[in-house]
Amino acid sequence: MDAYGTDSDARHGPDEPGGAPEPTGGPEPAGQDRTADPQDSRPEAAALGPDASAATAAPPPAPGPYPEPRTGVAALSPRYQVGAALALAVVAVVACVHVGMVFLHVAPSNTVTKAHGKAIDDWIYPEFEQNWKLFAPNPLQQNIAVQVRAEVQTKDGELRTTGWYDLSAQDGRAIEGNLLPSHTQQNELRRAWDFFVATHDSTNRSTGLRGTLSETYLRRIVVLRLDRDDAAGKGGAVEQVQVRSRTTNVRPPKWSTEKVSDKPMDRVLPWWPITAADTDGGAE
Amino acid sequence: MNRFALSVSSAIARITEAALGPYQTAVVRIGFSATWLLFLLREFPHREELYGPGSPWSWDLAQQLIASNSAFTALMWSDGRGWFEVVYALAVLSSILLLLGWRTRTMSVLFMLGVLSLQNRSIFMGDGGDNVLHLMSVYLVFTRCGQVWSLDARRARLARAARARGEHVADRVGPALWGVLGFALVAVTAGGRFDGVDPTVPVIVWAVWLALAVWWIVGRRAKSGEPRILLDVIANIVHNGALFVIMAEACLIYATAGWYKIQGTRWQDGTAVYYPLHLDYFTPWPGLADLLSSSGTMVMLVTYGTVIVQVAFPFTLFNRRVKNVLLAAMMTEHAVIAVVLGLPFFSLAMIAADAVFLPTSLLRRLGGWAARARGRVLARDGRATLPGPRAPENPEPTHASSTV
Questions:
Q1: C-beta separation of A109 from A216 below 8 A
Q2: What is the pLDDT of residues B337-359, one digit of tens each?
Q3: What ipTM describes this predicted complex?
Q4: Domain ranges for chain A
Q5: φ, ψ dihedrals at B201, nearest 5°
Q6: What residue of B is the nearest CA neighbor of A177?
Q7: A87 touches chain B (CB under 8 A)
């Protein structure tokens, strides 16, 4: 890929201080035939010191009018060249396979990924996962607010149910006017809810191990937030929590004729009892 | 046929005798280490909630998930608060040192370990910016990203000058660092901390550690120059392979983002950009968002422009001018996203990834400005801060003591 501006149209441009002779793109033996007048380019490169040719990703000093001491394979005897060739082959194969695997990982399901899905996953996970579908194929068009209420045992042993705390609105207020929103405000609750939705069916039943993890995670987040809001009051303790999501359509632009319902839709989860495991560690 | 053979041999010569794109890899190194450093500093007050043992994503939850995906994270070695603080501090330190280019190769490994340790500990805290940083932290390990704009380059220059004056130059810090980290690596491995972990990270760390030893021994002991040149050639090949992967990765990011958008009805009807601007989680400046989306035509142009630029970008690499125009457009868009959607670290990471495609002439000019600015600040001659040496014509492995 000729990405560093080594096209011929850039040659000797006024903004090319390192304007050593450049190839036209493909790996041509450009060094000699391009530089019709070697007098023209040599001092230029020399003036810039030894890094000039590299700076423009210029071609290697091809065996031309000015033979120079060479590095690279040319400087090696055949015995060592075998080693270099081997390294080149290994790196080329690994790099191409890696790029191919990443490509197949991000590509839509197709003949190859159906046949070799396991091999691709083994290569990609856990360290090369890719997740670039932010706002694609369609951007999210709903505001999803995660809200929670709690059943609290007060100091006097009395049970009381709190009102709904809109945790997403709290996040929103923290983000507003903020040049550097924290991941705790922007991602924590939002992604925990996504995680919950992805691992539960529409009746809020967990669909696997990750479902259980996501429930515990969500519960720990809301307990932490309730604690910060001092929902239990002095001497009180949260006994149970109930989470709901309230989804509201983003109202269409005013220059659009589209109409969408502005009625919020609720998804209410069952009451969850709080155990010691949900409160330990409580990050401040 | 002869012509074909010539191009092949010329290409081989080119990728074996120099680590290409020294300025581009340096700017990628600086970009990602700065992004991570700023992120860690910004989240310092929230570090415990994000990655600490008392996080809502508790140590137990993390352990259950990691048992199923075997990702690497040093934070699983202990659930102690002290260990967490040490890892966080080392992540900060390694990003500072990688930014400065001090013992670049070693720091790139520590940087990767820091990024992976924190991110894999709490994968649900991250977003697209964390994802790209995660990948690039791994790829950077394979590059010679400290050839310019680094303390390593400065040290190599000073050492060369000293040798030219006939002085003896000995590097004690390098072997000491290697020894200390090697001791830690052996202890970690012998302690079974890598058991059950996906082999990617342990293999990389061990390979780099052994390679540094081979590099040092060959640099000192080898009788002829050839073993050294061979190592230099291998380092160049690995660097150029990693550079190719970094560029391909950036292209795949844009291609994925672009091609999937084409399928979306909102990107087709030209309103897509309006919606993120009205999501509560991505509107730090509601007034600004309203202003930007007040004209339907403008929103449509930006919507279509975004898709066109993302889809087209990989193909424009074959034309320098068009590529530079699109690159400028994408960097601008990311800078706008940073503020308008409140995604500063995502945007910084994307700009750092884009930077691998910046033209050398621009980077050199920027380097010159930075050097002059620094020179003025330090009120002394800025000449010494010009981009550092790389020596394709020099058979001496000038990076022997610095950047393997």
A1: no
A2: 999 999 999 999 999 999 999 99
A3: 0.92
A4: 1-68, 74-124, 142-279
A5: -70, -50
A6: B284
A7: yes
